[in-house]
Amino acid sequence: MQIIRDLAQLDKSLQQTVVTIGNFDGVHLAHQKLLRKVVATARPLGATALAVTFDPHPIRLLAPEHAPRLLTPLERKAKLIEALGIDLLVVLPFTRELAHLSPVAFVRKILVGGLRARSVHVGPTFRFGYRQSGDVEILAELARQEGFRLDVLPTLVVRGERVSSTRIRELLSTGRVSLAARLLGRAFSAYGPIVAGLGVGRKHTVPTLNLAPVEEQLPKIGVYVTRTRLGDSFHDSVTNVGHKPTFGEHRLTVETFLLDFSGDIAETEMEIEFFYRLRDEMKFQNPAILKVQIQEDARRSLKFFRLFRLIQKRRAHRRVPSPRTSA
After folding, report:
1. CA–CA separation, 21 vs 54, rounded Å?
2. What is the mean pLDDT of each run of 10 residues along the chain (327 residues)?
3. Topology agreement, domain 2-155 and domain 187-317
4. What does the domain layout of the chain look like in residue ranges?
5. Which positions ≥6 away from 245 have C-beta within 8 Å?
6. What's the CATH number for 2-155?
7. Distance CA 19, CA 121 (A)
8. CATH architecture, domain 187-317
9. How far is Cα 191 from Cα 228, in angstroms, rounded to an integer?
10. Left if phi > 0, otherwise alpha if psi is -120 to 50, otherwise beta: which for 129?
11. How far is Cα 27 from Cα 33, in angstroms, rounded to an integer?
12. Where would you tag: which of 67, 96, 105, 107 has the fewest CB atoms within 10 A of its CB?
């Protein structure tokens, strides 16, 4: 997948595109459905499957005090979009000049003049143009005027939950990581460099790996069953998101304890997938009592993974067709 940050970088030979536009924060199930539809529409036409997103998030420029914590930083978002088959990702710098384009100017300058859109796919709540004055009805009328096709994806509901980035943030903020995963279509994860901690775990309880400070969304403070990726290897783990109150108040940290692992860590980065919330973070009377609790957390996590793998095995077995017998 090619990534460009300026419409002037578009290949002059680009004849027609199938386009979708959005922030795509989290690249959740609704985003995935939209992006796959773009790819499926583009292929028979010989067109370029193209996604447009913005950097920074528009609210960070227009109302920074209300800007949400992102579910996926741009680098992560780009990789998730690429995995869905998109050919070209256009990351438009969100400037005040862009924010002041009227809906008509946005369509004519960006979609038609810049991207050469033959077909445009958006979600039902898509807004565009100055002060978000454009909606899907206005876009439909502009599509008729400018000669491109518009497809609006219906609202996606999963087990009674409307799939949206806002709803996923709400779930994470209350620690409901398994429900957030249901809407994301994968476990929620945090990733970044491994940094040195204060050494209290190795000295008093269990050795942990510490994630560098994260600017993006994190689950509610507490202890979670997780899986930690180091390079190409995945390790069952228990992760604490919190302030280490047993050792005094500290800045918010994310530290993970790898289960059934020993040896040296050569990797400099890690990714932590959150599966299930075990408990609140608590202040213990002393490190020895905390260590006992961590051992209990580890026991419960190992039990979780045994059940998790048993369920996966049974599902895989059901998907395998039975061999046919002939008389």
Report:
1. 9
2. 92 89 97 98 96 93 90 95 98 95 96 95 95 96 97 96 97 98 97 78 69 94 97 95 82 92 87 97 89 93 93 82 50
3. no
4. 2-155, 187-317
5. 281, 282, 283
6. 3.40.50.620
7. 6
8. Beta Barrel (2.40)
9. 9
10. left
11. 10
12. 96
Give the SS3 label for residue 306: helix
